Structures are given as structure tokens and as C-alpha cells.
Amino acid sequence: MFDTMYQPYPSNRYCITARNGMVASGSNLAIAAGLEILRKGGNAIDAAIATAAALTVVEPTANGLGSDAFALVWVKDRLYGLNASGYSPKNISLQDVKEKSKDGQMPRYGWTPVMVPGAVKGWEALSKRFGKLSFKEVLEPAIRYAEEGYPLSPMLASLWERAVGLNRKRFDGQKECEEWFRVFTKNGESYHFGEIVKLPDHAKTLRLIAENGSDVFYKGEIAEQFVRQSQRDGGYFSKEDLSEYDVEWVEPISINYRGYDVYEIPPNGQGIVALMALNILKRFSFDKKEDIDTYHKQIEAIKIAFANAKHYVTDPGKMKIDHNELLKDEFACNQADLICDKALLPEQVELSKSGTVYLCTADQEGNMVSYIQSNYMGFGSGIVLEGYGVSLQNRGTDFSLDETKANALEPHKKSYHTIIPGFLAKDGKAIGPFGVMGGYMQPQGHVQVLMNLIDFDLNPQMALDAPRWQWMEGKKIIVEPDFPKEIVQQLSEKGHEVSYAQNRTSFGRGQIIWRLENGVLVGGTESRTDSNIACY
Length: 536
Description:
With about 525 residues, the protein is of the alpha+beta class. It has one domain: Gamma-glutamyltranspeptidase, small (S) subunit (Glutamine Phosphoribosylpyrophosphate, subunit 1, domain 1), CATH 3.60.20.40. Helices cover about 35% and strands about 20% of the residues. The chain is built from 18 helices and 21 strands. The protein has helices at about 30-40, 45-60, 95-100, 120-130, 135-140, 140-150, 155-170, 180-185, 200-210, 215-220, 220-230, 240-245, 270-280, 290-310, 330-335, 440-455, 460-465, 485-495, and strands spanning about 15-20, 20-25, 70-75, 80-85, 150, 195, 250, 255, 260-265, 355-365, 370-375, 385, 390, 420-425, 430-435, 470-475, 475-480, 495-500, 510-515, 520-525, 530-535. The strands form five sheets. The protein has a seven-stranded antiparallel beta sheet. Strands 7-4-3-11-10-2-21 form a seven-stranded antiparallel beta sheet, with helices on one face. The protein has a three-stranded mixed beta sheet with strand order 16-17-18. The mean pLDDT is about 95.
């Protein structure tokens, strides 16, 4: 059998163009679902929901029906923001979790880091406000994939195999995680490339949602199983945690970067990290991309932005400052002054890996969607609702058990959130959606991709394909295997601790749709994963 991950030769992709509609995501099957809905007369919002629902089936290594989600939606010359992230259960307490914690940190797996999932409610909210087709109709492709099965692609198979190996160690002896192995393995063994996966419980749940709306998930039989299983296995959930949950329509935040308006979702999302970094970087001029000054300043700006975000960002109702203060020019100028010729050692920030899916869509009416959803760390918490196939996220992992911290654990609180959709506009007109998946890599990816587009005039595909760096902590940087060696040497001379990564999987997976002035859509899709673009 050939090695599906062996890539001895450089591979270049060209931009994709279309006139009537476009769907981009990390899964060919998911984009086929979105395209199917566009061809049936649905709009970009319908296509986004269909793609997102399909991704819970065909990429469960990163998201599921237990995910959170954020979206930026361009409709009739206006941008809307949707925050479909959940909160912690009302019966949880910092003191109780701290007493049970073995290391003084929030647990990563099991019921404790599970929060109310927002994605399903988010799909329905998008459909009700902007969709053309029925909610039931846009879920049909996902149901079909779950019932009939689908073959594993190369990257998906690799991530699946890795997750099974890790989860054998993580969940050993944890009875509450047994359902994960029943649903996502073959008698404890991983699925592999080319094998067909069927998820009948997942299909059953999608059908219930399609026929009854999100109430069945938050107030009906699925919610009942959620609470019953949580209470049986030591979780903190009550029925009110789910029944009282709703998504929030929010005003996107933005800065102007060299004539372009860059939009992100406001806190509790970390999109503000990308905006703070860009706000710092626009104080400088950059002559060329492959230059030590460019990379050094990018890295320093990201470190400063993360230090500020980790200090302030949490549930917006709990933040001690107005987040707009962090985007003011005076603040940015002061932060830019901190950058010197050598690598800084910022306030300690621990960065985690994650599992996330990003997609973007556009239609011939001018509607565009930037959408992202995630179970956080791969498959998430390891908890799967018995009989329903719902894998639950572990977003609560990002809470602190230090009550003095802004992101300290509290009941019914939203945590600092890593997933961020992006959107670009100019002179009041939409340019298009963009995003880069990958935990704390996401704002770093946004900055690098946007500078590739705006500062260095790269097309959307090349802006994504360009080698990336990733700040890890302190002065530690990792770079992709094809990153320029001379830049690595020069970064080291400035005090950065640089090492080459063995592969490209941790450097984000992005998508871009760019609308030209004549209405033609230009798409770029990530070469780091099984992604593609469908259009017509």
C-alpha cells in the first residue's frame, strides 16, 4: 500500500475562479454538501450550514455536534457576527475542581472541561435569519454521509490513527469514555485510509435535529441524555444549563490595515490578538517578505498581542476593561515601541494544540460566510452521548483555577476561545472571508496570511501556501520544514530559539475567498490538509 502522507516533491496549486458560488473547507465531501445546497437554490448561508453539518460527520477528529462555533456573515452590504460558544455549567465551582485536580490545572478530558455546545443552536439561528432553504433540507447531505458512510482521506486517516493511539493512554480506565471507543473505533482499533466509516448514532441525532429543530438538542431527548450521563459520571450539568442557552448576535470588531478593514469576532474569541498584532505592525513598513526584519517584527507583535489577550480576554460580561481599549491607536503605538532589535521574553503564555474546522462560502447574490467550529482538542473531551453519537468539546480546559486571573473558572461563564473566523473589506465593499484553523496558531496564521495578501501582493493560494512560523512560548519558535534557512539563522542571532517542525500539520489549515470588482470569486485552499474548493 502506498504511503498517503509521503510528499517528496513540492506541489503548487493555482487559485480557483467561479462566477455563481464557491465553497471552501478542509474536506472534499463537506464542500460537496455545500455545493449541492447552492445548486438546489440555497444561498451562501445555507451552504455554510450544510458544510458545517457535514464536517461533523466527515471530520470528527476536529469537530462534532458537541462543538462551539463563530461566524461572520456578509448580507446586503452589512457584516453580522454570531457567537455560538457555550458557557460552563451553573453547578461547577473553582474550589471543587481545584480540590479534585491532581496538578492544580483544569482537566483536559472527561466531564469537567465540557461546556454547553453552541454549534447546533448556531446553525438554526443562521438558517432562521438568513437562509433560503428549510433547516431540514440543508442537513440532508450530512445525514446521508452518516448513514451511508464515507471513505477516509489521507490527512483524516492520519489524524484518526493518532487520536486512537493517544486516547488509549488518556482514557485508560475511564468508564465515562468507553462510548468514544464504541463509536469511533473498530473494536478498539483505528480506521485507516480508504476504509468506509458509518456513524448511525450521529445520523439519528441529525435526523432528530432536522425534524424538530435545536430544541430536541437543548430541551428534548438529547438534552435529557446529556444531563443524565453527566450526573451519572460526575459531571456538573443540569437541564437548565442547556434549556437556558442561546447564541448571541454580536458586532464584529475591526481595524484598518493599510486601507483594508480586517474584521474578527469580539471576545471571548481571540480574534482580537490578530487585530492587536496588525495594529502594531502597521506602524512599520515592510519592503519584502523574505526579510529578517519582517519575520522578527511579526513574531514580536504576536507575542505582545498574546500577552495582552491572555491578561484581559474572557467572557465579555466578566472582562475588566472594554475590549475596544486594546484596539486604540495610542495603545498600539505604545506596544510597537516595545519592539527592539532582539527577541523579547513576554509574560508567560501557554499555548495548546487543538482540533478545528474552518469553511467559507459565497453566492451570486453577494452573500458571504466565514465560519468556524471546533471540539477544541481533537475529538474533544472524550465524552460521547450514549446512543446519540455526540462527541462533546472540552473548551473549559482554557479556564484558570487561579481566582485572580481574568479567565478564572466561574459558573455560567464563557472561557477564552481560540476559534476565529476572519473577514476582509475595503471602502465598504466585501473582499471576502478567510480563516486559519489550529488553536493558538489561528491569530498567528491570520497575521501571516493577511500580510502575504496586503503587504506582499501574493494571490490567495500563494498567501496560504507560503511557509509559516509559529510562536510557542517565551522565545521559542517552530518553523515549517521548507522555511528559509537563512531566515532561521538570522532569527537565532536576534535571540529567537528556532527549531524546525517535522511536518506542517500544526501550522494551521486555511481557506480564502476573494471577490473581484467584477463579481468573480477567487479561491485559495490549504495545501496542508485534505482541503479543496467547489464552485459553479
